[in-house]
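Onboarding guide, step 5: your first structure request.
Type a short instruction followed by the sequence, for example:

Predict the 3D structure of this protein.
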Amino acid sequence: MEITQGVRFDTLGLSPEIMRALEKKNYQLSTPIQAGCIPPMLDWQDVTAKAPTGTGKTFAFGIPIIEHIDGENDQVQAVILAPTRELAMQITAEMRDLAQFKPGVRMVCLYGGQPIGKQIDALKKRPQIVIATPGRLGDHLKRRTVRIDAVQTAVLDEADRMLDMGFIHDVTRLLDQMKNRKNLGLFSATISREVMDIAWVYQRDAVEITVRPDEENKPDILQYRLETTLDGKVDALEKIITQEQYDRVMIFCNTKGNTERVTKLLQMRGVDAQCIHGDIPQEKREKVMARFRRGELRVFVATDVAARGIDVDDVEAVFNYDVPDENEYYVHRIGRTGRAKRHGAAYTFVTDYPGMVRLNDIAKHTRNQIQPVAFGPDGKLEPMEAK
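The system replies with structure tokens like these:
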């Protein structure tokens, strides 16, 4: 079933507590994914939802989960699995907002890179909702610090990414232990072979929801391609950020080394930049992300995996410092800008012929128009004829 429109939240039969939380955020109209998923999940049906990033998936499964929680019962009643700690933390923050007026609803976020003792203490408070990365939830089960045999609802968020990252055995082991599960939600940007396998084994008569990135939902992003030298990339970055007076920018690199290098070179030029990648301690990553979310950091540099779960509505521009390795990475990267009906810009730097071939391939397969630009005699960017 393809859903193209949202509905008013007050037509969905939600509790006064959830309506109050939505009103506090000034949300009256749902997104299409929320309109499609909330009713069947409230009815305990399995759901497979395919929708682009940034379409409001957390509320689509979060609202039915919170509505179903029995505050008097201190068993784990719902498990939400996410591929990265950043996404797990973000889901937890949104779920806390939703549950703020529901008495007795407790939740915990479990992920690697944080002392396990702290999480064990949190589990002693008997949360009914567990948001976790698959590996860390598996660790807690081995230690018997959590039980999931009474779970009624399970959700896999960014299911394609989770299974791509090699979590399929962890995920199936966890689902096998949820013997009393009533429904399973699979939320994914793409329905890969592995996602279909999980659906086939673990779901029954699932409601299938598709939200296309149609013209209405499609972000308004101007996309540019700039040919430059390897050494000229940082100069070009600084020039564009300064000329366009961007205050909130994301830069994507393919390697950890490049994120460090770009950040240092920008800092040397007086640009307020910070980076995150897999080797940076979790605490520092969280601080950098929090600064960026609050609008206190101008430039945020990251690898694709580290940046997953960063959900900020007003990123003005995205820079592909390196041409992404995969078409899907390009879509995810540029989708960070042009959200919430704002205009956005995406710039990709190309330094060699293979990079040009790769970008042409991305443009063809993702059906994106990428305008070639160059610095004119006055130092300003101007359009060029495509080669």
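Each response can be followed by summary notes, for example: The chain has two domains: 9-210, 220-383.
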